[in-house]
Amino acid sequence: MTDPIADMLTRIRNAHQARKVELEMPSSRMRLGVARILKKEAFIKDYKIAESGKKPVLKIYFRYGPEKKRVITGLKRVSRPSLRVYRKKKGIPYVLRGLGVAILSTPQGILTDEEARQANVGGEVLCYVW
Q1: Dihedral of alpha carbons 11, 61, 127, 2, sign
Q2: Domain residues for 34?
Q3: Which of 4, 9, 39, 104 sits most deeply, having the most CB atoms within 10 A of its CB?
Q4: Is the pTM of this model over 0.90?
């Protein structure tokens, strides 16, 4: 697999649209960082790492609104292996005028757009979530 973040976003998009309660996928530090941000920004209920055989598995538990209304309305992969997108601290994008979240990979770890602005760092824009 050449793009594990795009795979993660596609799995989340498909499972959330099918109104699944949980999702399992292979774990990595990058995926764990994205899941941590999704939980902190209240897009998902929780995430856990389970040991399944030799490799760890990341379990994501979804949140839904009243009448099973979806919380995540959109996911977009920005930087990809064939076209990396980097932004300086002043060029960090706002998603839907602040209603969404841009997830960045910075020298200080995986951060949201707001955290990167406060830390005064730029980095690679991984994806947008709204």
Answers
A1: negative
A2: 4-129
A3: 104
A4: yes
